[in-house]
Structures are given as C-alpha cells and as structure tokens.
Amino acid sequence: MDELLGRQVPNNIEAEQAVLGSMLIDPRCIGDVLGAVKAEDFYSTTNREIFETIYSMFNYSMVIDPVTVLENMRVNGVYNDRSSQYIVELMDITPTAVNVLEYAAIVRDKAMLRNIAQAGSEINGLAMEGLGSASDILEAAEKRIYALRQGRNTTGLEPVSSVLRDVYEQLSIASKSDSRIPGLTTGLPDLDNVTMGLNKSDFILIASRPGMGKTSIALNIAMHVAKTTKKAVAIFSLEMSREQLAIRLLSSESFIDNKKLQTGRLSNDEWRKIALAAEAISNTDLRINDNPMLSVADMNAQCRRIQNLGLVVIDYIQLMQSASGNSGYTGENRTQVVSDISRMMKIMAKELNVPVICLSQLSRANEARTNKRPLLSDLRESGAIEQDADLVMGLYRDDYYNKDSDKPNVAECIILKNRRGETGTVELQWLPEYTTYSSIEHFHSEEDM
Prior knowledge:
With about 450 residues, this protein is an alpha/beta fold.
C-alpha cells in the first residue's frame, strides 16, 4: 500500500547485500551475524532466501562458500538463472567482512522501522473499525509495541535450532557465573537449593493462611533481588498501602521492632539505623502500586514500560479484578475468574520473561485437619492455579496453632509443586518483631557474632 501511494518502505538493500557478502567472504562471522539479524529482517526476497540458505547450512555445520551455497539454493528450490552472478556480485561489492555487524545493525534498524509502521497501521485499523472497547484496543496496541521493543514476534513458530542457540547462550552464561543457582536468588539459601532460584517466565505462588507472613517473605525476596541484581522490581499490593509496605521494609532492613517503628519513639541510634536503611532501600529500583482495582492487564501494561525489569510481586490473587475490571463475583463464578486471572499471570510471566510471584490465601480446609500443613487442594478458588503455577510454596508455623510448640518462630516453607526440581520442606527463621524471614543457619551465625 505504501509503495502504491508513492511512499518508500524503510529498507537498505546495500546493507543487506554487504551482510550476505561478508558471510560469503569470511564464514567465521556467520555466528555473530545470526545473533544480530533474522531472515525476516531482510526486505529483498532474494536476499532473504540466500540468508535462510546460509542459516540452514550453518545449523548443519556444512562448509559455506559460494559453490556450496549455490548448490543448497538449488536443493531448496530458490535458485534461478541470475543466482550465480548475484552471488559473485555480493562478494565484489562488499569491501570487507570486518564491519559486518555494522551492516547487520542497519538491516535490523530498517526492519524495526517497517515493523513499527505495520504495527501503527494495524492499531489504526483496530481503532477505526471499532472492534472492541477502547481499553481492549489499548491493551492490544501496548502488546504489539512491547513485542517490538523486546525484539520478539507475538505470533509464529520458532525453529528449534534458534531455541537451542538461546539455551546454549544461557548455559554458557550460567557456567561463567559463581552462583550454583540458575535463577534469581531469594536471599534464603536453603530455599534456593531446592527451588533452583526464581527463573525467568516462572509463575510462582506463595500460599498460606492469614498471619503466616506471606507478604513478609515476598518483600524479603523482592528487596534481595533489587539489591543484588540492580534490576527493577514491581510490587502490586492490593491489600496493604505503600506506606505500610515501606514501614515493613524499613523494619526488616534496620532490624528495629515494627511496632516501635510505627510509634516514631526511637533513640538517636535507632534513627541512625533508620536513615541507613532508608538509604539502602532508596538505592534500589523497587516500585510499588497499591491500587486495589488493578487487573492483570493493567499490571502487565505497567510492567512493559519498565526498563530492566527483574521481578514482579503481586499481593494477592483473590483480591484481583478480572480482565475487564469486574468485581463482585462469588461462588463458582469467582472460582472461574480466579482461574482466568491465574492463566493470564502465567502468560504475563512468559511475555515479560521475568519471574512473577503471586501470593494466595489458603481455604479453611486445613483448620479441620489434625495436620494443618497446607496442601495444593487448600488453595482458595484454586481452579487452574495449581496447574498454571511452576512453583507453589505453602507457609506453615507450628507455633501459630500450638503455643507450646518446640519450634517457636520456626516456619516451614513446604514446596508443594516444583516444575524445575524436587518438592519437600525447608525450615526458615521467622522474626516477628521485624516481620521478616531469614535462613536458620544465617540467623544463628548472626546471633553468634
């Protein structure tokens, strides 16, 4: 359409030719080129077909030179009378393969401009046709633009060779890391050893009865991730205000009693501790939204705008609105809504490519049992929650139910489901005065100092 209207579609044929010429002149650069551009980035059909041929040959570790490329073009059915001459021209017009990544960047940039133009056209079409509400069209538009920003297509099949290349890169990065945990660490080493950390695109559920400290452990994890990775951490609190969350963060960071902190009656030494804690928290990229009316779509849209996002925390699932913002669901309808929300959060985790931690209330079913430790079946309005979640952790404190417990302030983090490893129980130290969790070994080592 643009060409019919006399508008030039963004492209740079010379850069495309220089990329292909470089790959033919010096096959050693092919691996770098394949990481910089994709076949669909080439505007010229002829150039795209040559690139796809070289890509396929590279995946099969075949010798790549003008003769073998032409032979494989014949096999693939993309050879024509001009192919031999064109391959020679590609090599002749390419001055050197040294600047191949510069040429590739130009090709990629022009492809991005074409994709932006196409996305704008699609968004304009949706708006003009009025297919859906304004919020639905806005959500579709944000998804389309976010996919472009992330360099990913929203639809389409990905060749397994491309997926394996990504996996290989991840394994290479992991092998060079000092950490034995592939995902983000939680700050609770015993828990990390079982769960393998918080991994990208994982939907993680932390469930308990009220009063067990699920908000506290989520804040502990959020703070640790923000401090150690320097990435942004988004916290959506549908129950507590941001001021309440900030007070909890100050208490756990300064080790000053939460109740005393709220009175403001602190000694000079305690004020100094608060100042240091506030500085440490302020130096992180923690972001809090305490709007109780947010839907998954709202959260997803806000997270897409965050650069360098590392983790999302949502407190908690039963308080969330449906996709359209409707509330007031009860019984079976509410169960279906929570199940839909659960599915959307798993999709959000995959789309954002970061771990998403969501807190959940447990039903009262465990109260009637002698053993009150949580089970997957105790999830309130569970629906598809346990199916969608990659990791489900249930919190249990024996001293909550038994005042004479022989394990006061010891919490059990029960791994009820773990797609990446084993299930089991990890004991953690609960510090009620600071509303925080710590590793038991870490807690004892601090006491001995």
